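LOG
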Amino acid sequence: MRETLESSIKETVKEIYGINIEGFTVEKPKEESLGDLSTNVAFLVAKELKINPKDVAQELAKKLSNKKMLAKASGGFINFTFSENFWREEFEKLLKEREKYFVEDIGKGESVQIEFVSANPTGPLHLGHGRGAVVGDVLANLLETYGYRVVREYYINDAGYQVYLLGLSVFCRYMELFGQEDAELKQVYEREGYKGSYIKKLAEDVKAFYGDALLKEERQKAIERLRDYAVKRLLEEIRDDLELLNIKFDVWYSERSLYEEGKVEQVINLLRERGYTYEKDQALWFRSTDFGDDKDRVLIRSDGTYTYFASDVAYHWEKYKRGFARVINVWGADHHGYLPRLKGALSALGVPQNWLHVQFVQMVRLFSAGQEVRMSKRTGEFVTLRELVEEVGSDAVRFTFLTKRSDTPLDFDIDLLKKKSSENPVFYVQYMHARIRGVFREVLSRFGIDADKEELNKFVYNLREEQELKLVKKAVSLKDSIKEAALRWLPHIITYELIDLAKDFHNYYNHYRVIVEDREVMLSRLALFKGIETSVKFALKLMKVSAPERM
């Protein structure tokens, strides 16, 4: 619907003004009373031609109005109101085509890699990781729905100082179990190590398996052995935690493999050959200021070790060589400043600017009993993602993480999500589906009418109540909203629309009976409910949130 209107606007502007116009918006107006959709195209035309936008809006509105749609100028905006018959026709299509109504092959098999979570395997997943996991997973679902070939990838940070500290932390705890300590290692542990209870548990498991054998090994060798052991164990836990949210990855890519296969050295040599590096203070630097960064960045430190930046450039160069048409990274907001240097290095290697995209995910604040629960992986005082899922369930976690745009902070209220009321958005949306299924069961029991098999589309034209037509519009409009969420990579749009639909549905349900004496009216309302159910179930499926039969 929105795409068709955009095409009509472009054609009309070309016809009247002789110019090709791009970059205008077609979206829902802030107030429903203004119409179904609104566009700012008149302002763009007026700016280019240096004429009055009000005059442009009036001329375009007059030309764009037809039997199915009234276009009306409002200042420089044009508001569109579609006819009741248009909405009924679309709703009838929805009933006939079911889920196929929402699906389009836009991607045409284009390959897209989405890298998300990629949490350091130095501890259990927390809320921030969980939000990124859900956002990445739903983005992948959306793009697959629209014909893209998607690869879900987890980048394992299993090299460098952080995992060394992990091994050191487990070793110090392991020594404690035998009443021993190494003063030098202990000092590093106290200052920088990981202190959660999971470290002590890992140490206990090591003792049970190795006994005191590691105490007799050379210290660094023992730490490396425990580093590898702890990374493996924690990765297994991370996989299990993600599966609780029904998230699986196609590829788990090891950072260490980049070093072992010489890929970090190869990419640095490429940057050298292209003249984008120089030596200073016995370190090797990348000229990232040539690409808009605020300062140049170190690739190889003065002690000969590679920086994380070097391995990240190598990893993304490796992605590019694998042939992905585009790559989407889902990163925590604290990585915002990291993007210019990475894009700069990729540009230096000849990678197109629009190949890498990053979706930033802001922090999550957890509330319980009205109080914020603070988290710190280093001190071990944090609520794990697993604990949260076990407390409120996968549906509540997934849905809540999508209730706001990912680049804005989110408050997660455990007590709210346990309520069975309209205050709880997850319950409110799922209850909409459960209520519809309950009506269908009753109609089948009492009248033998199977709403899942009955041809209800022919009764759509009996829907004439204002609230019925409002629900028809919102069920149909989910198609545009889901498509917008996919193409703009903004999955929260779907959640917002579902909550809005639920509000109107429950209001209708509380004021109108479906099972009435007039069979034609009953069948038309069953048609209404069937269309809503189809839309809601499809949207929830994309979010991997269940559509319960009963609640």
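LOG (cont.) second protein
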Amino acid sequence: MPAQAASGTAAAHAHSSPVKPEQITVNGIRHMSTTTADTTDLFRHSLGFSAYSGGGVSALPVLNGMADDRVATFVDGMRIQSACPNHMNPAMSYIDPDAVETAQAIAGITSVSQGGDSTGGTIEVNRRDPIFSSTAKLLVTGHVRGDYRSNGGGSGASGSITLANDWLSLRYTGSYSHASDYHTGGNEQRVLSTSYLSFNHAVTLGVKKENHLLALTFGQQDIPYEGFANQYMDMTNNRSTFVNGKYKGDFNWGTLEARGFWQRVDHAMDMLSDKGGHTATTGMPMDTATRTAGYSIKASIPLGRIHTLGLGSSFDHNGLNDWWPPLAGSMMMGPGTFHNVNNGHRDRLGHYVEWKAQWLPRFSTELGMRSDLVMMNTGPVSPYSWTSMMDMTDAMAARQFNAAKRGRTDSNYDVTALAHWHPLDSLMIDGGYARKTRSPNLYERYAWGMGQMATTMIGWFGDGNGYVGNMNLTPEIANTASVTLTWHDPVEHAWEVRVQPYYTYTHHYINVVRIGAFSDGLSKLQFANHNAQSYGINSSAFVRLWNTTTYGMGELRANLNWVRGQDLVTHSGLYHQMPTNGSITLHESWQNWTGHVEVTLVKAKDTVDWLRNEPRTPGYALLGLGGSYRWRNITLNGSIDNVLDQKYYLPLGGLSLGDYEATGNLGPLPGLGRSFNLSLTATF
């Protein structure tokens, strides 16, 4: 059943019920809960969405070719920064897909109320609000779920239970997910460093009184290990503890929403067995600790029948320590501790004002302005040794870094102007302009090491290159214009076509310059401001083919995304731009049965970033099958990924460094071969 999508956006909504299987809707397409452990998979049909390959639960989101920190990612209102020089723990890795109630991806033009300090768009993922009983009697409800994936021997389990009356609610949610290394299609070659193990727990306490809701969530995540096929390192432990509070209230003057949160992350990297393992005298230990805290306040105030005023304030503190303990007996990694980021912090204070007006029943506008003050600093650093000849390059870089004035303050502002026009019953036009600004992250500014080993430990791109920070970076300023044209059946909504062209010009785009070369052909790169442009077209369509009692309902759905990015200084392609891609899916539902056949199409990747030695990848087509059966409160889902067991390479997968260290062959990261997937969900 089609769901409403946010005007002019690639939006995703989800609904849950205590007596029905949980469902997630992306861009108006209703999906059963995913069998993968990575929450980014919920967005795979969203307009303009793709993902940098990472670990099994840690892909980095991309909207219209802009990735990771360029996308404002919120989990339960928390703006979480990666606590790792390889960004192995991005925001969406902290929530299991089964715990998600609503998921929204907005590419390009976003309202100022949906976050600043970003240029690519906004992703919001939220857990379910507390459930309350309709009477004073005790309500007990929940669900349990288990799944299995044949490729890699993946397995998972999750569930929740709620105890509630009409004003108090207590809910526990938990999940477990595990997989060994997966195999490619064709020759079923094992792809090294792709195993993982993850646990999530959360307890939510809710209180409701009339039009007021207060919810407090306490949670913990443990990832004992997670392999990263396109990094030199793996994650050997990640523990996150968080507290998140939310208040929502309706008043005579309008609505108010307030959030406050705190998170502690302790993160460790080293080499898992696929990369040789680690002991007291082997490997390379790297530790990171962060503390994140913040608040957000949003108020919506109707000013008569036409105008609505939105006001908001938010603050995010991110404190980071990144140190690499010495390795016993090593002349290169010792005798002291390598302090990569020492007491670094990145604080952002933002305010916005937003004016919405419904001028006519078929015409509305939105105008917003936002200011963000970003304050960054870090303490003095140190190499493994100040005197060793093997560490002399890093020792000289550390002295220069410590002598410099390191504090930086950026005063940024954003502007968004949107209009919605419904000139015909069958046509909607949404368009607008946005000026978005993003300040550098801590590693882009403060990664100071200059030696080959130190630089190759920095970078979330999966390309094997080494990266050096630049304290003189200035914020990116992206100017985006976009329009969304939607043609649809005005009576029965039996068909729809959506086309969304866009153009972005970015001043001071944070890219790289080459400052050195390594013996294996890879490069040492330093972050630098360039001007860049990106443009593309996103599109989607669906048509209802039949809807009868005898044959059920059949729908054909398709989407197509094309993006091109260019550095206007080096004239190379922007890094990791997804080639033209799309899918065609036939959905069928009949009584308690559902099924689908899907073909995924990806063009060859020919436009690459030559500065980063980005590999070209051939095009491919993948066939997928799936279906489900619901009986009372039990739902069985089954699917087959890559039915024909095609061998293909991931355009945004980077280099397969895990295989490179084992075989000496350096090439792009191969994708998943055929996999049989099953999941069983029971609700009560």
